[in-house]
Design brief:
The protein has 166 residues and is an alpha+beta fold. 28% of the residues lie in helices and 26% in strands.
């Protein structure tokens, strides 16, 4: 597996792959929430200055991606206050590549980049319905930060905040 920075030309594919990866949750969510999530993960928020976008390749195919937002960036388009550490966002792994360590490698890349940039922490947010993602983040040492949780669709579904000290 190779982890590398994404190119501009790959953005449409990456955004499409994100929606496909997250669509596993569509049936268990109210339609309004799914529409809000789909809009958020396919938005151009990942094109803000300083955002690093990484892809994972297996056998020459992109099988996953993640964005690392710099500290003090509006990573969540107004839903939460900017924090003093980078935030990992929109981690997505294609269904055919799950269980192969792709998500772990992408998370570790973000942790390593945050350390290399001199930060003492890294954060992220994930929907409370994303149990496998939360297990992955907790395995990497992320701890809950409920004071940074938010409710994007006013439907009772919480987007949970996590932080890892580096």
């Amino acid at each position: 597996m190779q982890i590398r920075e994404a190119t501009q030309e790959e953005l449409p594919f990456i955004r499409k792959q994100r929606v496909e990866a997250y669509s596993d949750h569509a049936a268990s969510l109210p339609d309004e929430h799914w529409q809000a999530l789909k809009k958020a993960i396919s938005s151009e928020a990942d094109q803000q200055p300083g955002v690093e976008l990484y892809v994972a390749e297996l056998d020459g195919n992109i099988v996953g991606s993640v964005a690392l937002f710099p500290a003090k960036t509006d990573a969540y388009e107004g839903y939460v206050d900017a924090v003093a550490y980078p935030e990992l966002r929109v981690l997505a792994v294609s269904s055919e590549a799950r269980g192969k360590g792709v998500g772990q490698a992408l998370v570790q890349t973000c942790i390593d980049r945050a350390k290399a940039q001199g930060y003492d922490a890294i954060g992220l947010h994930t929907g409370e319905f994303m149990e496998q993602a939360m297990a992955l983040y907790e395995k990497h040492g992320f701890k809950r930060q409920p004071e940074h949780d938010f409710e994007p669709a006013n439907d009772g579904i919480i987007v949970k905040a996590f932080k890892k000290e580096l």
